Amino acid sequence: MTTVLIADDQPMQRFGFRMLLESQDDLTVVGEAANGTEAVRLTDRHRPDVVLMDIRMPGLDGIEATRRIVAAGARTRVLIVTTFDLDAYAYDGLRAGASGFLVKDAQPEELLAGIRAVASGDAVVAPSLTRRLLDAYVHHLPSGSAPPAPEEDPRLAPLTEREREILTVVGQGWTNTEIAERLHLAESTVKTHVSRILAKTGARDRVQAVILAYDTHLVTPA
Which residues lie closer than 8 Å to 161 by C-beta, 6 or more apart? Predict the structure, then answer.
């Protein structure tokens, strides 16, 4: 059974989510929060598998709530649910540690599939869409002097040359199948490399790995 916490300031939106989730045999709602502060508190209390997190809420917003939930080190994963496709806030939510995002007008089966994917440790956002999002909002990356060379970033130090190569193409939006075909590897081998990359870099999922590739300048915007 996958446990879910709903965080949204609109009562009717929470009601709709609850009705949908409780129609599924493998999903159950453990609580509802009307703002980010409540979301953080209820996550600490209930330890849900997934938080459905709205962004624009009174007081503590969904981005800061996500950041605090992730920083607490719990196994809970956050799925951002935003009103606008490719909203700049969604980018900030991903950087705060969310495992992906969906728009509120997504089909019910998309939302359910997204919750299940996040609960199992996968990223909701497809790699190609993730890159489009990051390209659109790459100006949010910290500015400063000339970007450091990738090899100078300590987060990349534990990676082998092959793992660094695969992290680069993951950041470019390649799927596991594409990586296997283009690098002449078995898909199972690619999955093993990706798992090791996540473990060595501390990235929570594939979305965070893509962000890491941008942050370390292995990938630059097109």
Answer: none
How far is Cα 94 from Cα 102, in angstroms, rounded to an integer? 11
| Sequential DSSP letters for the chain | -EEEEEE-S-HHHHHHHHHHHTTSTTEEEEEEESSHHHHHHHHHHH--SEEEE-S--SSS-HHHHHHHHHHTT-S-EEEEEESSTT-HHHHHHHHHT-SEEEETTS-HHHHHHHHHHHHTT--SS-HHHHHHHHHHTGGGSPP-SSPPPGGG-GGGTT--HHHHHHHHHHHTT--HHHHHHHHT--HHHHHHHHHHHHHHHT--SHHHHHHHHHHTTSS---
The separation between the first and the last C-alpha atoms of the chain, rounded to the nearest angstrom, is: 42
**What one-letter code names the amino acid at 139?**
H
Tell me the CB-side half-sphere exposure of residue 127, using CA atoms within 13 A.
18
Query: pLDDT band for position 42 (50/70/90)?
Result: very high
Size of the chain, expressed as the number of residues it contains: 222
pLDDT in tens, 46-94: 999 999 999 889 999 999 999 999 999 878 999 988 876 555 676 788 7
What's the pLDDT at 88?
Answer: 67
Q: How far apart are CA 201 and CA 209, in angstroms?
A: 8
